[in-house]
Amino acid sequence: MIQLSPSILAADFACLGSYMRQADAAGTDMFHVDVMDGMFVPNISFGIPIMESVKKITHTPLDVHLMIVQPERYIREFARTGADVITVHYEACDDLNAAAALIHECGCRAGLSIKPGTDTSVLEPFLDEYDMFLIMTVEPGFGGQKYMNKCTKKITDLRQLLNEHGLSSDIEVDGGITRENIRMVLEAGANVIVMGSSVFKGDIQENIKYYRNVFEEYERGREQ
Ligand code: DX5
Ligand code: ZN
């Protein structure tokens, strides 16, 4: 199933509740929560207090993307404050098996992400440990960047690798997804689509409706 996960990083934080309510009204599968520490990435976003506020205004699952060094330190806190999926970075984590185990112990689904410069093959030892794999399609740190075309092959390679292992795990894509490249990333094998600017800039409900139609059309095409 194709899922939409709008990134609240692109919302106006002074009116975050209104932005999220509009997305919920149009129908979203998750909200993507980008946590940045100014160390793993050159930007600081937000942390636990925002999680707590957000959790109060939506029942939609929260898809937490930890762009922080040693994310193991904060897994329990994000789970406690309502994360449903917790994604850590391959490049930021000392013990990926322990991180996956801790995320599961906290009752969440576990995601593992790689930056554009990291080879897809590094994921192979962890295919059974994680439920979702996040292919970054921009350098993590900022919303509104341009999709890196070289990343499309990484999605295709990963879908093939998962197939070879008999796995149908989720592949999430994040960064620079637009009306122009959405069909291409679906075709490549991604099924969880993060979008910041493309959902929250402009008419939120109209944007979501547009992408939902693309998903439906794509799924119908595959059934035939
Ligand atoms: C970048 C973040 C993304 C970002 C996506 O580091 O992980 O989730 O907010 O924003 P857009 O869709 O605007 O590229
Ligand atoms: Zn993200």
Question: What can you tell me about this protein's structure?
Answer:
- This protein has 224 residues and is an alpha/beta fold.
- It has one domain: TIM Barrel (Alpha-Beta Barrel).
- 37% of the residues lie in helices and 18% in strands.
- It has 8 helices and 8 strands, in the order βαβαβαβαββαβαβαα.
- The chain is globular, with a radius of gyration of 16 Å.
- Bound molecules: D-xylitol-5-phosphate and zinc ion (ZN).
Query: Which class of secondary structure composition applies to the elements?
Result: alpha/beta
CATH architecture annotation: Alpha-Beta Barrel
SS element count, helices: 8
In total, how many beta strands?
8
Calculate the terminal CA-CA distance, rounded to whole Å: 16 Å
**Order of neighbouring strands in the sheet with most strands:** 1-8-7-6-5-4-3-2
Mean pLDDT: 98
Order of helices and strands: EHEHEHEHEEHEHEHH
Kindly identify the CATH topology: TIM Barrel
Radius of gyration: 16 Å
Unreliable stretches covering 5 or more consecutive residues = none
- CATH class reads Alpha Beta
Shape descriptor reads globular
Q: What is the CATH homology-level superfamily? A: Aldolase class I
Major sheet: size, sense and barrel closure?
Answer: 8 strands, parallel
List the helices and strands and how they pair.
Layout: E1 3-6, H1 16-26, E2 31-36, H2 48-57, E3 62-67, H3 75-80, E4 85-89, H4 96-105, E5 109-114, E6 132-136, H5 151-164, E7 170-174, H6 182-188, E8 192-195, H7 197-200, H8 204-223
Parallel strand pairs: 1-8, 2-3, 3-4, 4-5, 5-6, 6-7, 7-8
Helix pairs in contact: 1-8, 5-6, 6-8
The protein binds D-xylitol-5-phosphate (DX5) and zinc ion (ZN).
